[in-house]
Design a protein that fits this description.
Layout: E1 2-8, H1 16-29, E2 34-40, H2 52-55, E3 59-60, E4 66-67, H3 70-78, E5 87-89, H4 90-103, H5 113-129, E6 142-147, H6 157-170, E7 175-182, H7 195-206, E8 213-218, H8 224-234, E9 241-245, H9 253-259, H10 262-269, H11 288-299, E10 303-310, H12 320-332, E11 336-343, H13 349-354, H14 356-368, E12 371-374, H15 383-395, E13 400-403, H16 405-417, E14 424-426, E15 435-440, E16 454-462, H17 468-472, E17 478-485, E18 487-489, H18 494-499, E19 503-507, E20 514-518, E21 525-528, H19 543-552, H20 556-564
Parallel strand pairs: 1-6, 1-7, 2-5, 2-6, 7-8, 8-9, 10-11, 10-12, 12-13, 13-21, 14-15
Antiparallel strand pairs: 3-4, 15-18, 16-17, 16-19, 19-20, 20-21
Helix pairs in contact: 1-3, 1-9, 4-5, 5-6, 12-19, 15-16
């Protein structure tokens, strides 16, 4: 097993996650099998109980692991399925060591950071690196490890020490350190400054780690004299210094690494020859699909506007996977994505009195959108605004996709305004609701928050043959999607809803859990209890997101026709007319009726870059 460690210096937010993912892409294009590990030095056991404002979104894996959002980048870039153990935290390491101490496994020794914590970290890395994540038998060839935080953080010191020891444990030729640093340009002089990176590398070397490759973030490509200066002061060959300068879209990052021969530098450090075991690659890594996707993105002209109605709109990373899924679907539909952020609280009547300008602006954005998306969330703040967004979409035939809480609020809205059940509500917000449309799941815990929800991959069976969702998924009997929720639609009220015209087209294996809703006579009104965004990738965009973008851009009829023309539509992307992609899960059936994570510039000032 070979290991590539990615660290960061100077400041946080340089894009270590995207860099680590892109390194994996380039090495994979060289014929190597790749796995990934993310180290987060915080004391939390996992990311499950952290606020999105604090740490961005919580990404959910197939096994129910609630992990850092960078694991989502790894899965999207590398087309792999990771496990909860691929995210290491200080909390997990200390918990495992303390558990062993309580069992007496240290034979009376004094348990210390060195060697017990550092050994536990190294053992964890070696164990998890051997787990296959690409659907093939046997371990991967290379494990890309990202160390969260910035060099010098006190909380990451045990991991730095452990990784220094680990480089000696695995031996020369099996460990490559890539240090991501910042080379700023001061507006006053317009010169690329190397001193921050020099100090960062000096600090790294002082902690026992020597970088083999420098990945320098800058607004433009590094000048040759700057590279030579960095090489001299950081003791890194000039050929091993690459520039990660600002590009038009995130899919160009692997191309930057390839063009600067980063793969050759890494392979040389790892002592991997072109003829080695099962690996052979002639010339450059094959990244034709990435080139085509990046080029297509830059040439898109026709826009599609999606109103994102949520409560965490102040931080785009709170909805990172949702934004990525929208981007994948919009590129698939040949549309330039524009996201209008709408704070759900600004749609509420109380805001009309307290901040009339914000109220008017929010409603103008909602009414000007081609489609509306209401993502998941927790807590009662902004819930009424989400209900109003669902009502507007339903009454005005505007394409709507509700995810998790977005689906639940659509159900509550339907009960109140179509079925005239004015006291309908979720017991999450009103435990004594007279008409509980959404209820607490019986296996949930009301006292322990972490890891007690319905988590991970669960199966959804389609119950209505000609529904839009089933067609978008390629006419399969079932799909496996990831969940993260404590509340669900009250199954006892389902017959009343169906009589009133709301269809529950997808259910779990028991038939008691409602997974997908649709309004048949609406052009596209879909709600999903699961989170389809977590399995969306650039090459296989989520079908429900494709449906939203297609409906919002006037293409849904053609998409559904194409999806129904055969058992399963191939998930292949070609230039020319739009060909939809579907998940290849479940069993196909014949029906009776036939993209740094970038920046979103809201309100029409640009698109995801």
């Amino acid at each position: 097993m070979k290991y590539v460690l990615v660290t960061g210096g100077v400041v946080s937010g340089l894009g270590k996650g995207v860099t680590a993912s892109s390194i994996g892409v380039v090495l994979k294009a060289c014929g190597l099998r790749i796995t990934s590990i993310k180290i987060d030095p915080y004391l939390n056991t996992d990311a499950g109980t952290m606020s999105p404002f604090e740490h961005g979104e919580v990404f959910v894996l197939d096994d129910g692991g609630e992990v850092d959002l960078d694991l989502g980048n790894y899965e999207r870039f590398l087309d792999i399925k990771l496990t909860r153990d691929n995210n290491i935290t200080t909390g997990k390491i200390y918990q495992s060591v303390i558990d062993k101490e309580r069992k007496g496994e240290y034979l009376g020794k004094t348990v210390q950071v060195v060697p017990h914590i550092t050994n536990a970290i190294q053992d964890w890395i070696e164990r998890v690196a051997m787990i296959p994540v690409d659907g093939k038998d046997g371990p991967a060839d290379v494990c890309v490890i990202e160390l969260g935080g910035t060099i010098g953080d006190i909380e990451s010191m045990p991991f730095i020490e452990a990784l220094g020891q680990f480089s000696y444990r695995v031996g020369p030729g099996n460990f490559c350190l890539v240090h991501v640093s910042l080379v700023p340009v001061l507006n006053v002089v317009g010169e690329q400054k190397t001193k921050p990176t020099q100090h960062s590398v000096r600090g790294l070397r002082g902690l026992g780690l020597t970088p083999n490759i420098l990945a320098c973030r800058s607004t433009k490509e590094l000048e040759e004299n700057v590279k030579e200066k960095l090489s001299q002061f950081c003791h890194v060959p000039a050929a091993n210094i690459v520039t990660l300068y600002d590009v038009s879209n995130i899919w160009r990052i692997p191309l930057l690494l390839r063009d600067q021969k980063a793969h050759e530098a890494i392979l040389k450090v790892l002592n991997i020859q072109r003829f080695c075991l099962h690996i052979y690659f002639p010339g450059e890594p094959k990244l034709d699909e990435w080139v085509a996707r990046a080029t297509m993105f830059d040439t898109l002209q026709d826009t599609v506007r999606i109103a994102m109605v949520g409560k965490y709109t102040g931080l785009s990373d709170s909805y990172l996977s949702v934004l990525k899924a929208l981007l994948h679907a919009s590129v698939d539909c040949r549309r330039k994505l524009v996201v209008d952020w709408v704070a759900s609280t600004d749609l509420e009547d109380s805001t009309k009195i307290e901040a009339p300008d914000a109220y008017e602006s929010a409603w103008n954005l909602l009414k000007g959108a081609d489609g509306i998306l209401v993502p998941g969330g927790f807590g009662d703040r902004g819930v009424q605004g989400k209900i109003l967004a669902a009502q507007y979409a339903r009454e005005n035939n505007v394409p709507y996709l509700g995810i998790c809480l977005g689906m639940q609020m659509a159900v509550v809205e339907y009960a109140r305004n179509v079925m005239n059940l004015s006291d309908a509500n979720s017991t999450e917000f009103d435990p004594n609701a007279k008409t509980p449309c959404v209820i607490f799941m019986p296996e949930g815990s009301k006292t322990h928050m972490g890891g007690t929800m319905r988590l991970g991959s669960r199966r959804t069976f389609f119950k209505v043959a000609d529904c839009k969702s089933a067609k978008l998924y390629g006419n399969v009997y079932y799909v496996d999607e990831r969940h993260r929720h404590r509340y669900e639609v009250n199954p006892d009220m389902v017959p009343e809803f169906e009589i009133a015209g709301l269809q529950f087209v997808g259910k779990d294996e028991s038939g008691r859990r409602m997974e997908i809703i649709e309004i048949p006579n609406h052009q596209y009104f879909v709600g999903a209890q699961f989170h389809p965004e977590f399995k969306s990738t650039p090459s296989k965009p989520s079908p429900l997101f494709v449906g939203l973008i297609a409906a919002s851009s006037g293409q849904l009829g053609k998409v559904l026709q194409d999806c129904s023309s055969d058992h399963v539509i191939p998930a292949k992307h070609q230039n020319g007319p739009y060909v939809p992609a579907v998940h290849q899960n479940g069993h196909a059936k014949k029906l009776t009726n036939g993209l740094s994570n970038g920046t979103y510039y809201p309100n029409g000032n640009g698109v995801h870059a």
